[in-house]
Design a protein that fits this description.
The structure is a single chain. The chain is mainly α and 127 residues long. It has one domain. It has 5 helices and no strands.
């Protein structure tokens, strides 16, 4: 596989991980915007903490080559829940924003499957 494709793949993974680490920390710290969002969605306060923990741990695991696929799978499920939650309360634009992250995680999973697991190559193990 071409090295530039590997580099682009890891840039996407690292960028996504940084975004989710920052987003998860905001949830854990109780940023007003996050508290309000979970309230509008009708979820209890503890769910914000749970989602924040999943996002931070997922972000960390996302950049560990052997854990990337597992983290992307968990974050895919999390984003599917976010899309459904936003859509359920009529926040279509927010559902689309969560949906774009859902697509990114699916692409990460497909990339890892196609170029690592299917070919039995370890060349993507170096971030």
């Amino acid at each position: 596989m071409k090295k530039w494709l590997i580099v682009i793949g890891w840039i996407v993974v690292w960028g996504t991980a940084l975004f989710y680490a920052q987003n998860g920390i905001q949830k854990l710290m109780g940023a007003g915007q996050m508290v309000e969002m979970f309230h509008e969605l009708g979820y209890p306060a503890w769910s914000r903490i749970a989602v924040g923990l999943l996002e931070v741990v997922g972000a960390i695991l996302l950049v560990i080559p052997r854990a990337t696929s597992y983290a992307a799978a968990v974050l895919t499920l999390l984003m599917a829940g976010a899309v459904l939650s936003e859509w359920r309360v009529g926040q279509t634009f927010e559902a689309l924003l969560a949906g774009q992250w859902l697509v990114i995680f699916i692409l990460i999973l497909l990339f890892r499957y196609r170029f690592v697991y299917k070919s039995n190559k370890k060349e993507l193990d170096m971030p």
